[in-house]
Amino acid sequence: MASRQVWRAVRNGKCFVSICQRSSLLTTGHRIQPIHRHTLFRQVAAAKFHTTTSCSNEHIITIQDEEDFNDRVLKNDLPVIVDFHAHWCGPCKLLGPRLESMIAGKSGTVILAKVDIDENSDLAIEHGVEAIPTVLAVKNGKVVDKFIGLRDDVAIESFVNSAIGK
């Protein structure tokens, strides 16, 4: 059996590192070059890192406490989609990025507020969260719609559009 090594391929400024067989090929037919530890550290040190949509988009917020929820969700002029989630929840991990990309595509007409139920259990209880993920649509300080569990993209898009009023 061939020895397994760590290989790298750099495409469009992104480094892809994987453990593969020595004979593995990229889809372009070029052999992947073995990576050396000192080379990797040098490349990481020189790399320019980019933030994800969830970090750089002001329309996606993380709620810290009840006062923050009142100020940023209930008193907001824009419609707010509230995602009650937990870091250990599998369906939450699938739903979260889909909600984020949908909200990012709405160009400032709606805000996504992410609430971790482990850190904000009082908020979860106050808003009747019995299972996660639970997603609320809040308009003018009132909950106007709600869904529980994982949904497909069409249902999520419809939910967000109804919150916006489209």
TrEMBL record:
Cross-referenced InterPro entries: Thioredoxin, Thioredoxin-like_sf, Thioredoxin_CS, Thioredoxin_domain
BP term (GO), one: cell redox homeostasis
Start and end residues of each Thioredoxin domain: 40-165
UniProt keyword annotation of Disulfide bond present: yes
Superkingdom, natural source: Eukaryota
The entry's keywords: Disulfide bond, Electron transport, Redox-active center, Transport
GO cellular component, one term: mitochondrion
Record carries keyword Signal: no
An annotated Gene Ontology molecular function: protein-disulfide reductase activity
CDD domains: TRX_family (cd02947)
Pfam families found in the cross-reference section: Thioredoxin
NCBIfam families reported in the protein's UniProt record: thioredoxin
Family statement: Belongs to the thioredoxin family.
Protein name per its UniProtKB record: Thioredoxin domain-containing protein
